[in-house]
Amino acid sequence: MKGLIGKKIGMTQIFDDTGNSIPVTIIEAGPCYVTQLRTVENDGYMAVQLGFEEMNPRRLTGGQLGHLKKNDLPPLKYLREFRTKAELEEGQKLAVDVFEEGEWVDVIGNTKGRGFTGVVKRYGFSGGPKTHGQSDRMRATGSIGSGSTPGRVFKGKRMPGRMGNHRVTSQHLLVARIDSERNLIAVRGSVPGPKGGLVIIQEARKQ
Description:
With 207 residues, the protein is mostly beta strands. The protein is built from three helices and twelve strands, in the order βββαβαββββαββββ. The protein starts with a strand and ends with a strand.
């Protein structure tokens, strides 16, 4: 099973045998529990549902608690599905040792939400002139159309709006270090999301 749910801890650096510094992101990956198995007969596809991070049972509904108690599992905060044909059992516990140092992985997460932003911050527009009498056009959008023809604004026009909080996949990251005792995995480079953000670690699709 090459997939786990984790939480981004932050970035740091480690050193290889030759003394070169390697920028890495530390992720708390697992332990995860197999909460449900999807089969072709019952669901039309094969997948495994994993649960991560224990929480207060009062924060879950009766149906959610019953779904977990069926396999004697603790109340879990996050449930995610992984498409796989691996032979697993419901209630099985998966730890960070499913990965090995030197492997390549993909990390999926949501980028930091920036809220409502203008075009200068959102798209890098240069803004209006900073002289010749202008007073309030320095970070303005400028013209968004071309007059009577076509007489409208095209869909997809880059304008102010919500920035960030998108699902992003960082592909082909090297597993630099694994700490099985503390369920920590260090991947080379950056991964999307803030500290404490939920991430999904999968075997790299582009080997």
